[in-house]
Amino acid sequence: MAIRNPPSWMWAEACEMLERAQQLQRQFFRFGRAVASEPRWEPPIDILAYGNEVQVAVALPGVAAEHIEVRTDSGLLIVSATRALPIASHATAVHRLEIPYGRFERRIALPEGRYQLLEQVYADGCLVLRLAQR
After folding, report:
1. Better-scored residue on pLDDT, 10 or 35
2. Which of 23, 58, 93, 131 is least enclosed by beta carbons within 10 angstroms?
3. d(Cα 67, Cα 102) in Å, to the nearest integer?
4. 3 state SS of 101
5. Could you give the CA distance from residue 91 to residue 77 in angstroms, rounded to a whole number?
6. Helix ranges (DSSP H) in the chain
7. 14/20 Cα distance (integer angstroms)
8. pTM score > 0.85 for this model?
């Protein structure tokens, strides 16, 4: 069966994809009265490997560098911290919150091997970790 109006079909597909993206964002950003120690969101990452080194970039805008914890555990690189709400008082009117806030934790599976953290740099809202295989 032929599609009678391809632009309408493409528009409907694009709207459906946007809705799926918003559902994924809501899945990783749960705002409300959850347990404070429970992670509420996961930051996006980039992983690049070259030779025996791996570079991981974690997008953390608005997170204070001194609050970021980086650790390894059984082949995982774990990055966690809290991004505080910018609300100064109970009288603050929130018009829109799209950037995730609260405690986050990102568990990153590393390529096979044992790794040592060589460098940790936090600049322009991005944490860049450089690891090397031992």
Report:
1. 10
2. 93
3. 12
4. coil
5. 39
6. 6-28
7. 10
8. no
